[in-house]
Structures are given as C-alpha cells and as structure tokens.
Amino acid sequence: MSQPPRLAGIAAAASAVVNALLAGPAHALVIQDNLNGASSSYDWVALNGACLTAGNGTGSIPGCATSSFTYYRDRNSKLVGGAGGSVPDAPGYGALRLTNGDTAEGANGDNQTGAVVSRFTFGMQEGLQVTFSTVTYGGDNLRGTGADGISFYLADGSKSPTVGGLGGSLGYSCSNVNATYDGVAGGYIGIGIDEFGNFSNKADNTDSGPAFQANRISVRGSGDTNWAGLRAAYPAYYPDSLSAGKRAQAVQNTCARGYVQDWSSGKDGGDVRGRRLAYNYRMLGISDLPDRIANQQAVSRPTRARGIPIVYSLKLTQNGLLSMSYSYNGGAATPVITDQDITQANGPVPASLRFGFAAGTGSGSNVHEITCFKAEPVGQSSSSAGTNVQQSARVEAGSQVYLAYYHPTNWWGELSAQNLLYDPATDSVSIATVANWNAHCTLTGGHCAATGTSVVAQAPDSRKILTWSGSTGIPLRWDANLPAAQKAKLTAGDAAPSGDRLDYLRGDRSKELSAAGAGLFRKRTGLLGDIIDSSPAWVGAPSSPYSGPWTDALYKRASPPEPAGSYDAFRQARAQRLNVVYVGANDGLLHGFRSGYYNAAGAFVGNDAAKPNDGREVLAYMPGAVLDTIQSTNAALAYSSPQYVHNLFVDATPGTGDLYYGGAWHTWLVGGLGPGANRGGPLASKSATATGGALYALDVTDPERFSDTPAAASATVIGEWNNTLQCTGDSACGDNLGNTYGTPVIRRLHNGQWAVLFGNGLGSKSGSAGLFIMLVDPADGSRSFRYLGTGYGPQQDPAGANSRNGIAYVTPADLDGDHITDYVYAGDVFGNLWRFDLTSDNPDHWRAGSRPLMQTGGKPISTRVAVGSVPGTGTGAAAMPRVVVAFGTGRRLEQTQGSEAVFEPGGQGLYGVWDWDMAGWNAVAGAQARYASLASATRPLASANLTQQSITAEGRAAGSTVTVRTVSANKVCWQGSSACASGNNKYGWQLPLPSATREQVIYNPVIAYGMVIVNTTIPPGSALSQALSCNAEVPSGFTMGVSMGSGGAAAQSFFSSTNSSTFPLLNNGIVSGIGLSGTGTPSVVTAKKRPYLVQQTVGGSGAITQINPGANGAGARLNWIRLR
Predict the structure, then answer these.
(1) Which of 394-398, 727-731, 779-783, 1005-1009 comes out lowest in average pLDDT?
(2) Most CB within 10 Å of its CB: which of 222, 764, 945, 990?
(3) Number of neighbouring beta carbons within 10 Å of residue 380
(4) Does residue 964 register a pLDDT over 50?
(5) Rounded to whole angstroms, how far apart are CA atoms 774 and 771?
(6) For the purposes of burial, counting CB atoms within 10 Å of the CB of 467, is it exposed (0-12), middle (13-18) or buried (19 or more)?
(7) Which of 653, 623, 650, 626 is closest to 638 using CA atoms?
(8) Reduced to 3 states, what is the DSSP secondary structure of residue 748?
(9) CB 341 within 8 A of CB 316
C-alpha cells in the first residue's frame, strides 16, 4: 500500500558537494575508522548534522559539542544520547552522529539530515570488503518507528562526491516526490537501513521496489539519475533553459518512471520511446528485520548502550560478485545477497569507489549514529557481520588429533586429522601443520588448502545416509520407505512436493543458486555444515576395561549375563576395526569419517586400501527430529533457503561405549541434538520451552558393513526418542525431556542390565531436573526407560523468575571398581548438585536425593561434574578417602537471529564438594571400598561451608609467551577430622573466578594426576562494544589445573608455558593456570612417558601443553575415561 511521501523540509540541505572537491587517489589498503575518538583519521566531507560525539573539532568531521559546529544549535536542538545520556562523549566512547534525537514525543530531532562522503577512494583491483555498524535510538516514536533511516553507499570514484535525495531516498537514490531529488552521482550500491519504510517504496523513490515496509534492510543498485547526469547524457531532452521548478519535475518524473523524459519543449512530453534508463537504483535485495531498528523511543534520557547495534558486511569482488549481510543485536548474520553477479543489472564495477553515509529524520526523530567503519581488499577481512561465538569442538587423540571448526560466513565447517609429532632434537610434541585429511574437502571436492592436494568429492548418491522413520531406521532417500508425513515436512511451503530438497541435503548441488540468480536453494561454501558444540568422537578398537569374569561387588551371588572371557574375545575379534571419527554438524547430519586402523601389533596403519586414513564419509545419520525441522516456512531457519540465517540441528557430542545383549557384545554411538532442532530455532531465554529434544542410538560395531539398504538401516539405527517417550510406571515422563545437551554414557547397572544414562536436558515442558535411564534387555536388546526426577522445577528457581531447570550432563561413579555404576552425580542449571542412588539391584528402588548435596546460590552448573576420591586425613574413620565432586559454574545461551550469545554474569567459580553421606554405602560395601562419612551434616551445603581459595597473581613467567596464573593453597579443614588444629568444619573448597570479566565454566572438567583440569571462558564484550571497532571479538580463557583435594595450588607448577619439561614459577608462585583460550575438554596424551594436554583454541588451532605429573594433586577418578 502506498504511503504519503515524507519531506525533509530543509531548504538549505545540500544535495551535492561542490565540484571543487575532486576525487582523491585510489588506495588498495585497509581503512579503519572507529569514529569513536576525538577526530577521524580520514578525509571526509561532512554535511549538515554529521559530527563526532567525542570530537574536538580537528580533522575532517566536526565535533558535535564544539563551538564552531552550529548545526544543532541553530535549530534549538539539544544534543541527547551518547554513552552517558549527554554529549560530548569521552574520547574512545563516541560515534559519528548524523542526526539528533529526542527525549519525548517532541520536535527536538525533527527535519534533520546529516551525511559524510569520502574524498578518498578505494581501488577495486582486489575487490572490497566493508564492515560498518549503526545504532538508532532516542526518537519520538512517530507512527511507531520514528525517523526515516540511514544509508550507506558506494559511488564511482571518478565522480565528485555527492549525496542523494531526502526522505525515503535516504540520501542515495533519486526521489519521486522530495524537494531534494537528485540521486547520488555514479551511485553503484546503496544500503538503506529503513526505519520508516519508504526506501523500498517505488511510490516514493525510483521505479522499482516492492512497497512501503518499515524496519527493512534494502539494497539498491547503480544509478545516475540527477539533473547534471541527465543533462550530460541526454542534452536534447533536458535543456539548460528549464527553470528550477521544471528541472525538479523533470528529475522526479524520470526517477519515478524509469524512462528518459522529453522536456525539449519546456514541458513534460512523456517517455521517450525506447529510452529506458539503464540504471535507476534498481532494487537488488531486501530483508525484513526480526525486530525494530530504532530503540528507546520517547524516553527521558536515551543512551547508546541501550540501543540495538546492527553490524553490516558487504563484499564486492573485482568482477562484480556481491554479498551483503547484517547482524542484528549480535545475532547470526542475515544474508540479503550472497555471491550474486550484479554486473548485468548494475554495470561493470568502477575502477575505484568512494563511500558515503547519510541519514534523515523527516517529521520524526531518531539519533542516527555510525559506530565504526572498515574497508579492505577481499580476502583480508577478519571481521564478520555478527559477533563470533566460540569454536567449541575439542580434540580426540590417537596417532592423530581431530580439530573441528566452523565459519560463520555462510555457515560451513571443517574437521581435520593431523599427526601428533615428536621432535627428539627439541624434545617436544607438536601438531603437524599439514592435515592428513579434511572432511570439508572429502565431501565438497576440489583443491584442499588443508592438505595441499586436490580431492574428488564423494558422489551424493553413493553416500550412506540414514534417518528414523518414526518406527525404524531407513535410508534417507525420496522413495517409498520415506513416510508421507516426513515428505510433507521436507517440502513445507513448496509449491509442489519433490525430492529436490532431500537431494540437496544429500549433497546434490545442481539446484543451488547460481551467480546469475538462477536456482532453488542456498549456495553452500562446502557440504559439511558448521560444527559448533559437537566434539569429534573417535571409535576404534574396543578398549573398555571389562576383562575377567563379571562379579557384582554388592551382589556377589548374581549371575551376570556376560559370559566370562566374552569381552576379551570381542576385543580380539575387533582389534583391527576401522577407526571412525563421528561428529555432529548443523547441516542436519551426524557424520562418520574413516581414519585408518590399528594392526595386530597395535601399530597405526593409514595406507591400507581397504581401511585408509582418508576421511571419506562411511556413514551419516539425520535424526528424525531434524528431518522434521530442517525445512521451515521461516526462511531464516530453513537450511536450504537462500535467506537462511542460521539454525542448530545436530549440535551435541555423541557418546560411545560397549554393551552386551542378545548373546553378543556391541558398540553403540548415542547422542542428543544439543540446542538443535527446535521449531523456532535455538532457545533465546531460560524460560522458553524446547521442541527439539531427542536422543538417537546407532550400532557402530562393524563400520565396514555400513549400508543404506532398508535392512542395514534398520539394523544400524537402534532407535530415536523424543518428548513422547514413556517410562516404566510413568507414561508422561517425556514431558521432562528437553534439549539434550549432554553426552550420554553407557554403563552396566546392578540389575544386570546395560543402560544409557543421560540428563533430562534443558527447556523441558515440565521444567524440572532429573536423570533418564534407558535400560537394554540382556536377552533381546529391547529398550525401556526410567526417570528419576529431583522435583526441582520452575517454582524452585532461586532467581524467582520461574525459569526452566534441567540437567545437561551426568557422571556415573563406580565406587568399588567392579565396572558397575553405583551412583550418578549431576548439577542442574539452578546450581543444585545431585546424587542419584543406583546401588539397588531392583530398579524400583533407584532414586534421586531428597535434597541437593550443595547449592551454589543460583550459579548454573551446565557441564559435567568430575567425581574422584582424595586421601583421608587423620586416623580411624577420618583416614578413609573422601568422595569429592568437582565442577564449575557458568552457562551460555546460544546466538539467535536477533541476539548475541548470552553468558552468565560474573561471580562464577570452581568447586569441590565432599559427599559426606556414605553411611548407607559403607554398610554394604567391602572394607576396601569404604569412604569417609558423617552421621549428619548441613544439607544442602553452601559456599560458607567451603574453604575459599583465590587467584593470587596473573602475568608472564620467565620465558613464557602466554599469561599464567597462581592460586592460593589454603588447607581444607575437613569436618569431623583433625586436619587442622582448630576449625575443622569444611566440606570442600571453592575457587572464585574473576567477576569483572564474567569468567565462567561452560566446558567439562577432567581429573588427571590428582588435578581438576578445566578450560574457563571469558566472554567477549557486548554486541555494542564490539560494534565500536568493527572487529568481532571471541571469548578467551584459562586452562586451570588445581588440586582435587583443596582447589588450590599443587606442590609444583602444573603447566609448562613452553611445551618443555620446564615448569615455571610466577613471582615464586606455583603456576596453576595458563591463558591458552582453550575450548572443550582437554585430552591427555603421553609421548616418551611424559603427559601432555592436547586441545583446541578459540582460533581453531590445536595447542599442546606439557603437564607435570609431579604436581600431585592427591586424588583419583571414580569414573573411568580413556587417556590416549
């Protein structure tokens, strides 16, 4: 629907810069103008209200509050907003202001314009990548939107600097109705950040565009529709003799109709037949924002910090391929145009380009500010239109390390296998810089930068991809095996159902969008999707510690279903099994890539023709829950849509383990989807309800027999379960299943059955926290479920916000070494630490603790807890070892289309809590498996019951290239012991993390050499703070190693800062943390009998750190893990 035009109403507004301002020289360099300081570093032409809020009057852009700048004073317009609610800002905290705002529904910011145009130009020999950010706030809320908006444009560098029409033209295109009507001379690309809604309205400007629409980002193409341009190109039809009013009418009519107009007679003679304008700022692309552009409308003291930043990324290659995207409020980048060849519609790319920003308010008002600007050649840019979230895949190590990455530009991923190398000359371990294979390359084909070789892509039809039909595993193909309901889900919103999208998901690229704009589906950079929260899971030869006859130490008369020696026979039979690395990706698939094998002598073999180390995909699985959601009528969430923003699908780390049923041993791979497969995308709040929670199980015993025949698919896919599952004695237990974040664990239980243990996840319908147990019948492998709920749901939210509780990870503990789980420990996101009692041989007697072991005061536990024992102190009962549960607090909410990744506020920490209630266990356990216990104690425990440690120093140790930390070594005076001369009243320890930086724990800790090892995370600045620099920040953090028994420093420094056998001191203090910015959970490997931590950093590279076993943190794991 057409809307009335908006006139700026400023007679003195300049529409062109005088011809004396000639184009400056073109430069192929990096231009970065943060615009937040006292002056700009570059030569801009500043017009009308353009000024720097922290400016001092020097440089090319005036200072807003300087005496020589009078634009706003002349209009009695009080400067509002800024960093603190008034201007000027302090240097470093300012912005480029184009128009002023208001403090209420007044006229303080009405009818204002502002623009800057570069005198300098940018050479296009290597293309151009531009990043800039805007904030719009503090307006009068006219018609619910406020002022017109902002534009950014590129113009031919050979033309003099100009500004376009006002009103809906936003200073770029020509205007059909406005008194300031000329479009930018030599305009090539204009981006309209359109609050009011007229930039895309052909009733207001140009002859193209859909219609009026507020809160829209639009991209217009080239044009030269202005009096000077028309007069020069068509002098016969636009004579000099026309009056000023008729010149205005001539340009406006030409703009509105898109044809040369015949004014040769001094009046409008209409269209000149056959003389359509080649370029009239044609509409190239649009995207409607997820929410309003303007913020803080009609408030008394608006501030920039509470505005909504939008970061834009524009890439234009020298041959005319255009990509443009934006990130709203730190959210995932929303594409408007991706790799489109615009030269046919837009003309060739000029040899050089200049830059311009413009804004207007019309009869409304808003503060319009640019907070940073950056331009550089294509290929040099390290920024992206969106706040980077963290690389979070950890490594698994054998003879190789496996590093997973993601790229937020077009969302694609990599998984590389790289050798671990030992150099005897330097006595050091490193990671090979050249990969043995890269899964992105094996799926996509072509030249592989990671390996330096060319790779032939796997044919889509040859891939073995399976899914779940709702009742059985089936091949993922468009055939009779795929139920009609799933076909309907895959084609939702399509004009007619077809298998095209399924073929696309399998890897067919024939219908991807071409550079000319033809095609149905999004053009992918590579076939492997982004890998964010799923870590690689390596499955090789069986290696669980299940040798010898099975004896239940609590129920010695029980007859085990596993025959004596059966596991040794299984291990021998599968000793040369193909190694497969499994990882989930947000292309909707769990992938399995082959990676060599170990021969009978235990040596790694990578060059065997039948079982090569080449990273070829041997299996993929699309969970049924993902198949139901990977297509969406919301294009931003639909994986195949050209308007795809981002979504999460298979975003959790799978777990693997061996189990016995049906007279044989099997190896299973079991996983959840993390925050993936929700119908509305990742949950953006703690009170939101998940719709995508699911768990799948695959039989991966023999990867060489994987096939996508119906029979093989049915045998490989054990099952998939969602929130409709039913439990023994509880048909509605599925209401407790939320997004399945944690890695499931396969363990044997006291009732003689194997089980899969997993937390109930986050965001469930009930909002409670609990443990799910999937039991596997030893006779036939059939599955049944039990749910042990804690009873702690929204009503127990310590913040009183009725948020949803849940358990992400669980940790089984085997207290007597019989390889049968006795207790399961877990923390919930309300900060409660729980123990689940599975010691009975009757599942009806399994139960959750009646009360938490400890409460953190609302600090969430979103990772696995580590369970270990520490030596006793004293004599008698006090000499027994103590069961200690170690964990960290913190949480991250995922990035969405409209919000950045959100971390917990400061005040998080590391904890070690004594499970003092062992009386029941000691009554049935053997004498060698008893633990220190108390008859009674405070429950739940709190921080006041714990010994406080502290970070004592940070800095560079001698010879170190990274920052290290020292921590205190306060002794824990255990309750009921004589550990200290007095004050023996503590139940563990706490190490607070720095609150100012919001440091927290979002990765799982491990125990090794008596130390708790964990990567901490220091979140990046807010979306607004990052928008001030045009450089996306990533989290940082420390790898901490503290004593399991005290939470403090060990006897010696634990980390080498130089990957050598030297373990430095910092100011004579023992080093307990090292600033590697590691992600995920570190793996421990040994080389030449020395232990090393192998992990991945936020930048995606691998890092190896030698650790000191002599530090001796005095503790041992009670839940076994593989140390490779």
Answers:
(1) 394-398
(2) 222
(3) 12
(4) yes
(5) 10
(6) buried
(7) 626
(8) strand
(9) no
Average pLDDT, the chain: 92
Residues near 527 by beta carbon (within 8 Å), at least 6 away in sequence = 440, 443, 444, 457, 507, 509, 587
Q: Measured between alpha carbons, how far is 866 from 888 in angstroms, rounded to an integer?
A: 10
**Could you give phi then psi for residue 439, rounded to 5 degrees?**
-65, -30
CA angle 137, 140, 143 (to 5 degrees): 105
**Which residue bears the tokens 């008002």?**
365
* Secondary structure (3-state) at 391: coil
Average pLDDT on 878-882 reads 88
Residue type for position 374: K
Tokens of 1008: 């090794």
pLDDT tens, position by position, 607-652: 999 999 999 999 999 999 999 999 999 999 999 999 999 999 999 9
The H or E element containing residue 500 is helix 500-506
SS3 state at 735: helix
Q: What is the pLDDT of residue 121?
A: 97
Q: For the segment 296-322, what is each residue's pLDDT rounded down to a tens digit? A: 676 788 999 888 899 999 999 999 999
d(CA 161, CA 170): 16
Euclidean distance between CA atoms 40 and 115, whole angstroms: 14
Tell me the domains of the chain and their CATH numbers.
Answer: 26-222+282-376 (2.60.120.200), 226-276 (no CATH)
Q: Write down the pLDDT at residue 1059.
A: 67
Strands 44-48 and 308-316, by their bridges, are unpaired
Angle, CA of 153, 158 and 164, to the nearest 5°: 35
Q: How far apart are CA 701 and CA 135, in angstroms?
A: 55
Q: How confident is the model at residue 918 (pLDDT cuts 50, 70, 90)?
A: very high
In the prediction, which pLDDT does 395 show? 52
User: Two tokens at 450?
Assistant: 């990671």
DSSP letters for 615-657: --EEEEEE-HHHHTTSS-SSGGG-TT-TT-----SS-S--EEE
Please, which residues have CB within 8 angstroms of residue 511's CB and are 6 or more apart in sequence? 500, 503, 504, 519, 520, 521
Which residues 6+ apart lie within 8 Å of 696 measured at CB? Answer: 468, 590, 621, 623, 670, 671, 672, 717, 718, 719, 720, 721
The residue length of the chain stands at 1124
CB 727 within 8 A of CB 785: yes
Best CA proximity match to 972, nearest among 1052, 886, 908, 1073 = 886
Could you tell me which residues are beta bridge partners of residue 773? 757, 786
Q: What is the spatial distance between Cα 380 and Cα 383, in angstroms, rounded to a whole number?
A: 9
Half-sphere exposure of 34 (CA within 13 A, CB side): 15
**Could you give phi then psi for residue 232, rounded to 5 degrees?**
-70, -35
Distance CA 651, CA 643 (A): 21
Report how far apart the first and last C-alpha atoms of the chain are (Å, whole number).
66
Tell me, what amino acid is at 334? Answer: T
Residue 160 bridge partners (DSSP):
none
Q: Angle at CA 492, nearest 5°, toward 487 and 498?
A: 50
Kindly give, in sequence order, each residue whose CB lies less than 8 Å from that of residue 927, ignoring residues fewer than 6 positions away. Answer: none
Residue 241 has φ and ψ, to the nearest 5°, of -75, -10
Residue 653 in this model has a pLDDT that exceeds 60: yes
Q: What is the pLDDT of residues 775-833, one digit of tens each?
A: 999 999 999 999 999 999 999 999 999 999 999 999 999 999 999 999 999 999 999 99
What tokens does 145 get? 């939107």
Place of tokens 């219908």: 511
Look-up: residue for tokens 């592989």?
448
Give the burial class of 924: count Cβ atoms within 10 A of its Cβ; 0-12 exposed, 13-18 middle, 19 or more buried. Answer: middle
CB contact at 8 A, 509 and 539: no
- pLDDT class of 1118 with cuts at 50, 70, 90: low
Cα–Cα dist 1099/37, whole Å: 29
